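Re: the request from the purification team.
They wanted to know what the chain is likely to look like in 3D before they choose a buffer screen. I agreed to run a prediction and write the result into the notebook, where they can find it.
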Amino acid sequence: MKNNTWLNRWDERYSSEELAYGTEPNNYLREQLSKLKHGTILFPAEGEGRNAVFAAAQGWQVSAFDISANGRNKALQLAEQLGTAIDYQVGELSDLNYHPEQFDAIALVYAHFPAAVKSSIHQMLNQYLRKGGFIIFEAFSKNHLEYIAKNEKVGGPKDVESLFSIEEIKADFPDYEIIELAETEIELNEGLFHNGTGSVIRFVGQKQS
């Protein structure tokens, strides 16, 4: 997935002093983490670190990665400001040294990977989650394009292939007990780039095998 256009896009977004999506964690992530026992957690495509830093402050042992060094730098600054620490790597998932069954939870919060690889990345992530571990997922649904047409400030990919459906999530995570899987309309107020009404897929699943 060596895609310089993709990398440049995120490096540019994370280049300003202000955090693109704010410092507060995603509401759904906050809600779901409160239900789980603390352990090890991985945040893929973690950007500027708001969710990873929140989890660390709650007592989780946090790992994160992104392709953007700018994102990592801002995440580590945020962690330092809040008196906590996260392990944050820069690179493609296939090049990183995570271990099978390393994590108790994986949080995919607006982790919109390029359409051609998004399912393969989900399947790769699955091997790093222990049996009995949890996936927490929130990202824009395929119907979100209608919301972008009304209000571009809500953010999100503008190609339908990069957006998600309930059927895709079921196919990508087949060996999971579905605790929650729904498409829902929400109000977003996250920094500069997630503002307004949007359509998302929310998923919590527990790995069975």
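For the purification team: The chain has a mean pLDDT of 92.
Please add any questions underneath this entry.
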